[in-house]
Automatic annotation (TrEMBL):
Belongs to the proteasome subunit S14 family. Residues 74-246 form the PCI domain. GO terms for biological process: proteasome-mediated ubiquitin-dependent protein catabolic process. One of its GO terms (cellular component) is cytosol. This is PCI domain-containing protein. It comes from Pseudozyma flocculosa PF-1. Keywords: Proteasome. Transmembrane segments: none annotated.
Length: 262
């Protein structure tokens, strides 16, 4: 390994640990990936020395984390595809990485937030049960999936504040976006209108501007003087009978969520 490659590696880790701006880190990553490719280390080979493979793994791990910070899911997927060879094929010759479990957890969250539930369970089944049980990084997505199945959306919302790493919040936010649209669909079927404050509570929004942006996205009409949101399908509500049992069930679910928040 050249001294220049080692120096670039050390500079990248220093930038990442000091939370330097993403532009700087991504520029360093680009140069390092070129250097790793030229050295035959971007894709590992049996001929490579363990210390060289460990350096390449470090670079790719930083790249995966930075992709999430940059909200670039496709880039994250590319880094994780490269890392799998290091984690799966060279685990016996490389020292354990402290970033392995956090990145495994992020991979599970990525599947969960994309509603790829079957792939989520398939990936989970490939992991040792004791690792899943004991790792906070893996328990986080496992708990989220269980709460989703239970409809315990308030627990999913609170999980953002309980994330084991800051990068986890990105996927929890994506997950909450999906949940909000599901709740919104129920609101549109069950009500003609709602007080804006109630809609904000039910949708887990912290401020008025977030509610207004969401209402605009859904095509809802908001009366600023009465602070009431009118759903776009209200005009056709009279021609469609909403099943009473479904409405009652929805209201009860909303009441449970409100109670858990308060």
């Amino acid at each position: 390994m050249s001294a220049n490659l080692r120096a670039q590696h050390d500079a990248l880790l220093k930038s990442f640990s000091s939370s330097a701006d993403l532009t700087t880190i991504r520029s360093q990553l680009t140069k390092l990936k070129i250097a790793l490719t030229e050295a035959g280390l971007l894709v590992p080979s049996p001929e490579a020395k363990p210390q060289d493979l460990a350096l390449a793994r470090d670079v790719l791990e930083v790249g995966a984390f930075c992709s999430i910070r940059a909200k670039d899911v496709e880039s994250f997927d590319r880094y994780m595809n490269l890392l799998r060879a290091f984690y799966n094929d060279y685990a016996s010759v490389l020292p354990a990485s402290q970033n392995h479990q956090p990145l495994l957890g992020l991979s599970l969250l990525r599947l969960l937030s994309s509603n790829e539930i079957a792939s989520f369970h398939t990936a989970l089944e490939t992991l040792p049960p004791d690792l899943v049980r004991d790792s906070p990084y893996l328990q986080h997505p496992v708990n989220l999936e269980r709460w989703l199945m239970e409809g315990s959306y308030s627990k999913v919302w609170r999980a953002r504040q309980q994330a084991p790493r800051e990068e986890y919040s990105f996927f929890v936010d994506r997950l909450m976006g999906t949940i909000r649209h599901e709740i919104a669909s129920c609101e549109e079927k069950a009500y003609d209108s709602l007080p804006l404050s109630d809609a904000a509570t039910l949708l887990f929004f912290d401020n008025l501007q977030e509610v207004l942006s969401f209402a605009n996205e859904r095509g809802w009409q908001v009366n600023p003087s009465t602070q009431v949101v009118h759903f776009s399908n209200a005009s056709s509500a009279s021609t469609h009978t909403i099943p009473k049992k479904a409405t009652i069930s929805t209201n009860l679910q909303f009441a449970k969520e409100l109670e858990s928040i308060v």
